[in-house]
Amino acid sequence: MIATIHPSEIKGTIQAPASKSSMQRACAAALVKTGTSIIYNPGYSNDDRAALQVIQQLGATIQNENNRLIIASKGINANTQHINCGESGLGIRMFTALIALNPTSIVITGEGSLLQRPMDFFDQILPQLQVKVQTNQGKLPIEVTGPLTPSNITIDGTLSSQFLTGLLMAYAAADAKDVSIKVNNLKSIPYIDLTLKVMEHFFLKIPHNDGYHNFYFDKTTHTNAQNTMVEYEVEGDWSGAAFLLVAGAIAGNITVNGLDIYSTQADKAIIQALIDTGCIISIEPHQIHIQKSNLRAFHFNATDCPDLFPPLVALAAYCEGTTVIEGTERLTHKESNRALTLQEEFGKLGINIQLQDNLMMIEGGTELQAATVSSRHDHRIAMACALAALKANGPVVIQSAEAINKSYPDFYHHISALGVVVSLHH
User: Which alpha helices (DSSP H) does 132-224 contain, by range?
Assistant: First the structure.
């Protein structure tokens, strides 16, 4: 699909999309917790749909009624020997440990960019948990034969916290006792806070947390609150809403509803970046009002929230001066190598981006050019390019624009409702 985004002023009120970070963790927790769980405000992105398919293949049943999901689980019992996690990085990293709880051999695969992402972590860690593992030279597909048996291990948290999320869920499912997971150099700590918050909500066994270096499961018997029905409302998504908020700062006067300012989502940090630009912003418990003004360059550390790089680059393009963003080392293994992709695609729009060590420097304040760009099949690149078009000197054409379906399928519809002139062509 090709999307043509025309320079536009935006105004109005919009509801934030559902958080796929919250949604996918809730799906996993509902599977681990035996009994019935009801999920309100569920997401319907490709990643969310993949998570729902996985938990069904692991034994859960799902009813969809009036924008709520009723999930019933009797524990993890796979009903297939092949499981596809779609293109979800969180999905493959979180569910592989849960899949490995099965005593049978199961092949796990994915689609698109996920086929190129490194999976060496499983080669290194799962054999220590009595799981037989075979990967495709450190890539998908992965074949695992369990059952996973919790024991004391040490893992590297540099690449992603999502591997730890999967292990915490799996240890809880296996009712781990007197074992710990030690973590070196954990990144994206707020996402582990979200994992622990969801696990607690679903009455799963929670480890003692020693400063995010050691997660210890004690000897206490865990009841799993089997007869307790859990109701969970998926949070508004700060990752997707970041694009709406940046659009407001660049070209608008808008209100975004449905965001929890007390959320543990890492991408809530977009608020600080927006404040630092000098935009006009008003923050209330469940809504944020934002409007354009003269924007100034900012300095931001995105190490714990690397998904903010694309909207931050679009924001920086309209800020007077040179913006510096730290944390580019976190961008190599995304849907694309995001640092290089942002540099090249925004270069087509006339924005100079320099990469040096762990830094990205964006020279903003110059007029953005009409151009044809490509999402490189990366959902956040597609959305960032759409923001860049808002005050360009002509329309921006985005190739492979359907990439947004991975996380925010309503994105073009939402910005169109705010007044952006969008043309979609297949």
Answer: 162-173, 189-201
The pLDDT mean for the chain works out to 95
Q: For 322-359, give one letter per residue: b (16+ CB within 10 A) or e.
A: bbbbebbebbeebbbbbbebbbebbebbbbebeeeeee
Alpha-carbon span 195 to 164, nearest angstrom = 9
Q: Which CATH class is domain 2-16+236-425?
A: alpha beta
Q: Looking at the DSSP assignment, which residues form a beta bridge with residue 224? A: none
Distance CA 385, CA 310 (A): 8
Q: CA-CA distance, 327 to 355, in Å (whole number)?
A: 11
Catalytic residues: 307
Token couple for 214: 């050691």
Cα–Cα dist 160/92, whole Å: 12
Spatial contact of 240 and 16, defined as CB atoms under 8 Å apart: yes
Domain boundaries, the chain: 2-16+236-425, 20-219+228-233
Omega of the bond leading into 42 within 30 degrees of 0 (cis): no
Query: Between the CA of residue 202 and those of 27, 173, 196, 221, 237, what are the distances in Å?
Result: 10, 12, 10, 16, 20
Which pTM value belongs to this model?
Answer: 0.91
pLDDT at residue 159 in the model = 80
Residue 333: is its pLDDT beyond 80?
no
Give the closest residue to 314 by CA, choosing from 385, 263, 378: 385
- DSSP character for 357? T
Calculate the CA 284 to chain-centre distance: 24
- Whole-number Å distance between alpha carbons of 405 and 417: 18
User: 365: which 2 tokens?
Assistant: 């304040």
Class of domain 20-219+228-233: alpha beta
DSSP state of 268: G
Go through 72-111 and write b for each residue having 16 or more CB atoms within 10 A of its CB, e for each that does not.
ebebbebeeeebbbbbbbbbbbbbbbbbbbbeeebbbbbe
CB-CB contact of 1 with 402 (8 Å)? yes
**CA angle centred on 263, ends 28 and 302, rounded to 5°:** 95
Structure tokens belonging to residue 49: 């749909």
- Cα separation, 163 vs 82, in Å, equals 20
To 5 degrees, how large is the angle CA 53–CA 59–CA 62? 55
pLDDT digits (tens, 9 = 90+) for 307-325: 999 999 999 999 999 999 9
